[in-house]
Design a protein that fits this description.
Strand content: 15-25%
Helix content: 40-55%
Radius of gyration: 22 Å
Distance between the termini: 26 Å
Number of helices: 8
Shape: elongated
């Protein structure tokens, strides 16, 4: 993912009702659900750029009152690979289902305005809940993410090469079993 980042239109304030934090190269989040969503985005090689709090949308609610809405994020996809080059940017809201149900009457106006705004930009608007975010795929990412940029110590690599020369012909399982008794060390290698 591209490391350039656009500035959010709204600052993420310090509050007591949820967690706040920052994911490197992606920006700040306001809930653990947003954090988990950003991990999905960070792991997706199709994504070029993610901007939290990307736009402020002005609109009139169903009572005619002027109001504004700031969606949680904008996902922009790479143009140099398929299928990313075929995907439209996604303006998104990340919301727990319970919060969605509690505040439905207000949120429906916001989401309608966001959908219209997204269409005008050539984007799509999507709402993501814990059902779409907290999946087995996320569990796998959380396990793998710490290994993504990690390099093996030279001594382990050297030992593997020495053992390969010694065995001459081997499959991965035999090689790892011959090097490590501990299954966790084999998994790490």
């Amino acid at each position: 993912m591209n490391s350039q980042q656009k500035k959010p239109v709204r600052k993420i304030a310090i509050g007591t009702s949820s967690i706040r934090g920052t994911i490197p190269t992606l920006g700040q989040y306001e809930s653990s659900l947003e954090r988990d969503f950003m991990e999905l985005v960070r792991f997706d090689n199709n994504v070029e750029l993610y901007t939290p709090q990307p736009v402020k949308i002005s609109f009139r609610d169903r009572f005619g009152r002027k109001t504004t809405y700031v969606p949680d994020g904008l996902i922009e996809y790479r143009h140099d690979i398929y299928p990313a080059s075929e995907l439209k940017p996604v303006l998104c809201e990340i919301k727990y289902r319970d919060d969605f149900r509690k505040d439905w009457k207000r949120l429906i106006d916001c989401f309608k305005a966001a959908k219209v705004y997204a269409l005008e930009q050539g984007w799509v608007f999507k709402v993501y809940t814990e059902f779409e975010i907290r999946t087995n795929y996320l569990k796998n990412i959380k396990f793998l993410i710490e290994y993504r940029n990690e390099t093996s110590p030279v001594s382990v690599e050297d030992n593997i090469l020495i053992k390969l020369e010694e065995l001459r012909i081997s499959d991965p399982e035999t090689l790892l079993v011959s090097l490590f008794r501990d299954p966790w060390m084999r998994a790490d290698a």
